[in-house]
Amino acid sequence: GLPREALRALVVDTDDLLWAVAGDWVGTLRTSRFERHSWAATADAALARCSQGGVWLADKRGLAKLNQSEGAWVSKQSIVGGVSALAEDRSGTVWLGLKEGGVLRVVNGRTERIGNVEGMEGGEVLALAEDMEQNLWVGIENGGLSRLKPRVIDQLDRSSGLAAENVFSVCEAGDGGLWLGTEAGLHRFQAGRGISRLGTESGLPSQTISAVWEDRQRTLWVGTWGEGLFRQNGERFEPVKLGLSLPEQDSFIRAIYEDAQGQIWVGTRLGGAVCLAASGVKRYDSSMGMEHSD
User: What is the pTM of this model?
Assistant: First the structure.
């Protein structure tokens, strides 16, 4: 079952199979239980959807491609410090965000590193996302936000209107802009209009936004680090109760993802995975075979 430790990522593949990674554990949801995959990851592995089916998994050993039954290395090389974020762009290029700073670009098994030399400053890469114009956005610890265009890197920081040094989550908006989860509240980037900020006045009780997701109905879901999950309702945000037994279990949100049925999946720090469906809230924890690994 799913380990009882922090879920780092939730991803739905092209076959509508839900994947999860927690620590060194990788697994999929089958019927009503999570089952462990045969592939063994190292701690702090990152996960991303693969456009050709299955998922990409990256850890300090390199990049692998997994399907429902097996996995294979695409680029096997030691990555000092490990991987903190992972994404595939529209061209099929896979990007690895590194704990020690910078990103790796993997094309046809060949790896290229992009970092401070090219203009990307700061520490650990916290988030990766591609926009409609095929720019790659990189949230960086103590480095704000970087935009990667072909052969060009733009750095967005406090001088650009970003009120934070750490960007934890980046999500593309339906209008082509971006939602940014930061240590200083929720930010929105719009081309030609710059960066604006939504703070506690909009109903968000926490400044630390750890996860952001805009669903197909263009409703925004916001996960905080310490104050739980919120859903946009007009100009304000309302709290969403996850139904976990202890307050601290649903207070720290690590990941938000929408599946093909429009259900919202939430990964928590201590409470496992929660599915928000039209029929109600369903929790996946030790009562469904999840392992205890305190």
Answer: 0.82
